[in-house]
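So, can you check these tokens?
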Amino acid sequence: MIKMTRAYLLSIGNELLCGRTVDTNAAWLSGRLFAAGVQTASVQCIADETADIVQALRLAVQRADVVLVTGGLGPTDDDLTRQALAAYLGVELVYYPELGEKIEAFFTSRGLTMPQRNRVQACIPQGAEPIDNPRGTAPGVLYETEQTLIALMPGVPAEMKAMFETSVLPRIQRRLGGPVVRSVNLRCYGAGESAVAEMLGNRMRRGRNPLVNCTVSEGIITLQVIAKAHTPQEAEQRLETERLELEKMLGNLVFGTGEDTLQEVVGRLLKTKNKTVTVAESCTGGLVAKLLTDVSGSSEYFNYGWITYSNQAKMEQLGLSSALLEEFGAVSEPAAQAMAEGAIRKARADCAIGITGIAGPGGGTEQKPVGLVYISIMNNGICHVHRCHFTNAGRAAVRLRTAQTALNLLRLELTI
């Protein structure tokens, strides 16, 4: 088995421990490290206390080759990360005049006077080196030995990401000297995580090469495939073979790769087929239209739609009859079909999505419970209506899953 370098991530800040701020930095860094062939061994949140940070550094260096620290590089009294690294190394902080001048120029360029307390940001532990921060005032700090690399980076995500990509990641890559790692994400929708795992069998077994990891976020399943080899060509070939086999096993559950979204994939299909789409939404309140128009260039295939929340709106705007609503109700298969038909007729579009349902938490009955949704997809003059029941979900989750399912159903129609 090819051994991977291990990383330890330390996130500094009381705001992370009291719930005011979510630590997105560690998740992003773990993903970037894994793609580079570095396995994250542990993630820790540490309070703004010098002794706690020093203790965490000692543990991290014992257990990992790469230690990445985010946060605590600001100018205030509770920003103690650089001081903690100096204490861990047993050295003094050294003031770098050129860094001080650069920080002062940052303020001057914005018509501001640099507060004296910002001078501490130009102090670097003796024996370490500063890392340029093109997006802020806090330089990073890098300390490297033959055994370990320690990098201190700002907690501000945009500053941290730029610093990591331009300065820290290249240093890590130079240290690896091990296997070539290649990865790809397969994006799936339409089945649960356990069902996908069942379909894949032993392909998710730990220690396998290629390795298949699975994560789920808001109904979207992402399979990260990581292949390791001794040459780039061998790694790419191993990755491509695995990707093709997984796509064959999962079929139309796979809707894209990388960071593809359902709305982006649907948009590409509509443009490829030179088709337009319209929407008629009730319980989703315009969420499908919002997702479609999140994509740049969506005006090529989406002009307008309707949010017909009340029965009156459904009748006036989409032409549903009072007799239909009285006999079947607004949450019904006939109503969903009539909504799509009315929208496609008025918009003169090629495709239509109609949605009606009960998002909750109130409004449900024994016959029509909360989470019951009817989604109609009209394409090529034919309308298919799908009955969905999203259980054990709050109002926002029902609406999101409904919108995603509608986009996925349209995707499947467009790929026939």
